[in-house]
């Protein structure tokens, strides 16, 4: 009997994979000193994973690792956390980082989480800022993949988890270069998945919408979308490591909303963006609230905000004082 086209297609669709135990897995997390990276390291190490966090803020990374390692030991599942300096835009730094944490064992999972989000009108953005966004958000993912991917292919197993953003699917005015960088991560991940899947290496995308971290200080959430926490995103990262999936959104329901919206005629999409405010969420970010983060992302001191008296160095905001982050 001749099988139908759908039956033949079904034969090539893999079944639901069993959930794997995280105990003993070696996981590298970039941008792990704070925010989503630190929350991810906390969850994975509590479940028994051996986690190495890399961050350009080496002192904070070491402090975070010490705290998380102590918590992991109390959890009693064998998890641990170590830290080493990492500039994701530099090949030599990647080599030094992987050498420094090699004692943990072969890398099972790389979580490419490091990212920056300077905002502002595209035509006024300094060239150096544009390069920083693309270097950290895109080149960092590419170099990280090349640093650990070949060994994964040689072993016939491994996973790359790339934390992108909802604006990697729906661009946001006011963050044109940032949106471009996240579109690039989405495209790179999808192509990479096709290349590495035959070798037993999974590639997973995580796309947060609005997250309460310092990165989005001064950014208001769009109408109808409640902000999520760094731990909410970390929970999704943990879930896709336990059972690898190609793409997960945070919150999960926004994937269906986005897919439905993108199927509509463009004038309707534009009208919906105006109605929900997604066409100006990043453009309307509060410069005063973002000053400390923007300075750190650019590697400079906070600039004086128009209308304010300049007279001292601005203090760094905590994640609790920050507003919402667009992932």
Could you explain how this protein is built, in words?
Mean pLDDT is 81; it is low at 300-327. The protein has one domain (21-326): NAD(P)-binding Rossmann-like Domain (Rossmann fold, 3-Layer(aba) Sandwich), CATH 3.40.50. The termini are far apart. The protein is α/β, with parallel strands linked by helices and 327 residues long. It has ten helices and nine strands. The chain is globular.
Strand arrangement, major sheet? 3-2-1-4-5-6-8
Class from helix and strand fractions = alpha/beta
| Overall body shape | globular
- The average pLDDT is 81
Q: What is the correct CATH architecture?
A: 3-Layer(aba) Sandwich
Distance between the termini: 51 Å
| CATH homologous superfamily classification | NAD(P)-binding Rossmann-like Domain
Strand count, sense and barrel status of the largest sheet are: 7 strands, parallel
Write down the CATH topology: Rossmann fold
Low-confidence stretches: 300-327
Count of strand segments: 9
Give the amount of beta strand, in percent.
5-15%
Number of alpha- plus pi-helical segments: 10
CATH class bucket? Alpha Beta
Order of helices and strands: HEHEHEHEHEHEEHEHHHE
Integer tally of domains: 1
Query: Approximately how much helix is present in the residues?
Result: 40-55%
Rg, Å, rounded:
20 Å
Can I get a quick summary?
By secondary structure, the chain is an alpha/beta fold. Helix content is 43%, strand content 13%. The protein has a 7-stranded parallel beta sheet, sandwiched between helices. It has a two-stranded antiparallel ribbon with strand order 7-9.
